[in-house]
Amino acid sequence: MNKIFKTHLALLSLPVCLLTLLLGANVWAAVIDAVNPALRPPKGAQVAIVVFEDLQCPQCRRVAPILEQASKTYKIPLVRHDFPLPMHNWSYEAAVMARYFDSTSKELGNEFRDYIFANQLEINPQNLRGYAERFASAHKVDFPFVVDPQGKFAAEVNTDRDVGRAIKLEHTPTVYVVSSRHPDKPYVEMKDASQLYALIDAMMKD
């Protein structure tokens, strides 16, 4: 298995044109398939921003509006993944609540995430539900006493968290600009918010 992985890494380091000549389109497609699906643009998009965030993370709160503005400016998708960290005492429950609102619409779920960020400094485990109830009431959405009786939404959060662990996340937020235009380098991590637009420009070039 390690030998195969090393082979994939070696192939990814070759120029696209040379790789195509050496291996052919079918083998090259197999190499691209090795990239985690979370690090690819969603269907119908060539470039996207992908973020793994924790709703209790202060830096996630600060970066969120920057990512949303970039998404609007470039008209590219912003794909948000829940990655609640174990040291935060209400972020997991908030992520489950966000998944509940996602079940009405993804837009509503993301609006709830932004609402939580906007009130992050005042939220604690005791009043989190009250914030969620007020959000639901303002949007004329029911908010049941038991939000996730079957554990469906928790499973979705766990799946996102497992994806983050699979790609070796070390912190939140972790932000990637992903592209189908550059098979030799399908994603790049944003190390600093000031470089986001430059990364998008580079990934949008043919």
Protein architecture, described:
51% of the residues lie in helices and 11% in strands. The protein has 206 residues and is of the alpha+beta class. A hairpin with a 7-residue loop joins strand 3 (174-179) and strand 4 (187-190). Residues 1-32 have low confidence and may be disordered.
Structural topology:
Elements: H1 2-12, H2 16-23, H3 25-33, E1 47-53, H4 58-74, E2 78-82, H5 91-102, H6 106-118, H7 128-138, H8 152-166, E3 174-179, E4 187-190, H9 196-204
Parallel strand pairs: 1-2
Antiparallel strand pairs: 1-3, 3-4
Q: How are the strands of the biggest sheet laid out side by side?
A: 2-1-3-4
Main sheet makeup:
4 strands, mixed
- N-to-C order of helices and strands: HHHEHEHHHHEEH
Content-based structural category? alpha+beta
Mean pLDDT: 87
Radius of gyration: 19 Å
- Which consecutive residue ranges, at least 5 long each, have pLDDT under 50? 1-32
Approximate helicity band: 40-55%
Work out the strand percent.
5-15%
Shape: globular
- The total of helices stands at 9
How many E-type strands? 4
Distance between the termini: 33 Å
